[in-house]
């Protein structure tokens, strides 16, 4: 068999995949190479069975409380997905109705997020929130560059201000597009970016501030209105007009339905753009994101390309070119299927389950809640100081994994790295009954760990963190 190269550390060492004799056909190979393209063809039934059986080793998505990404849709959505799998979102000439539906979706989001003039907004679908964040950041940088050139000033050394608890996509944005990241550390006293001390991070080279509606580490909202007020004060003192991009990967599809009185969106004049994940609390299969700008002035014209569409042209702004159109249709299906009342019911149910779980875990003497799952349906906790020296949350995470639950443990970001937390993400499909079973399993494993006569080994501990 041909030799393979460049295999990642920890990858499988077996060089071939054996075909189950039940599925093998006369004349077919009984083994297929694992890392090299096979020399010959296989029957579709054989190839299907091999892939199907390999995928069986993946975890049970319903018990994965680490990920924010949706893993279930109803039967009608599955049928729509299959029939739309061939649609290429970028080919608006071939699929003009899909393009029109994409525009309807971001227009709905613009209204949901209280755009002052929804007809004057502009938006786009993306592969996920990471691409949407990249586009939002690019628009901030380009607007800053244009303003600096008009003023006859240098466009070198742009910076972006954000919490130390941002999702890694913002670190990527700064790295890929040569923007200095300025991280405002979170602390015990200031558990989110809340405007405190913000003036010390902002200067004439600041392209914008990122505010997070649903911090990945804990699920907490950053108070966008307080951040905006702090920037208003900066402008009064210095003349610097710094815009905000709201990373609403999760919260932008929770707050409008469950906390409508919280001002975080385009009701705040300083908010220039908002992104969200269709495949998180938008309730669509991976991967789909959305980004909407306050108005067309917030998205510089030189970032937008015109493509043929229905005999005319249509603006497009994306990092990816060919990409699936099926998820866009699924989002439209969910908007029609649930409407405002349906989304409110689904999201409220998830919040109720999260707050039930938080209350039950708070009753366990070993833990201290970091937050209570009252923003997005996500919360975190830590070991109560002085409870034990024999085990950590990493050990509890591993014990729960043996019962099928994925409940990650990880250190908090810079300036709080000595704090380890465990986090639960409640998604549609985690029922109250399942939550009750999880609480019982946590209580059982805590009793087991508390009964240890000595410390658990630490050699194989590692953070488990998923966005």
Please tell me about this protein's structure.
- Helices cover 33% and strands 15% of the residues.
- By secondary structure, the protein is an alpha/beta fold.
- The chain has 3 domains: 1-58, no CATH class; 79-335, 3-Layer(aba) Sandwich (Aspartate Aminotransferase, domain 2); 346-450, Aspartate Aminotransferase, domain 1, CATH 3.90.1150.
- α8 (326-363) crosses α10 (432-450).
- The protein starts with 15 loop residues before the first strand and ends in a 17-residue tail after the last helix.
- The model is unreliable at 1-10 (pLDDT under 50).
- It is an enzyme of class 4 (lyase).
- One of its GO terms (cellular component) is cytosol.
Quick description:
With 467 residues, the protein is an alpha/beta fold. It contains ten helices and 15 strands.
Helix-residue proportion: 25-40%
End-to-end gap: 39 Å
The largest sheet is: 7 strands, mixed
Number of domains: 3
Label the structural class. Answer: alpha/beta
The CATH homologous superfamily name of the largest domain equals Type I PLP-dependent aspartate aminotransferase-like (Major domain)
Task: Tell me, briefly, the overall form.
Answer: globular
Estimate the strand proportion: 15-25%
Question: What's the architecture of the largest domain, going by CATH?
Answer: 3-Layer(aba) Sandwich
- Total number of helices: 10
The counted number of beta strands is: 15
Elements, N to C (H/E)? EEHHHEHEHEEHEHEEEEHEEHEEH
Query: How large, in whole angstroms, is the Cα Rg?
Result: 24 Å
Low-confidence stretches: 1-10
Q: Please state the average pLDDT score.
A: 91
Which CATH class of the largest domain?
A: Alpha Beta
Biggest sheet, spatial arrangement of strands: 3-9-8-7-6-4-5
Predict the CATH topology of the largest domain: Aspartate Aminotransferase, domain 2
Keywords: Decarboxylase, Lyase, Pyridoxal phosphate
InterPro entries: Glutamate_decarboxylase, PyrdxlP-dep_de-COase, PyrdxlP-dep_Trfase, PyrdxlP-dep_Trfase_major
Enzyme class: lyase
Family: Belongs to the group II decarboxylase family.
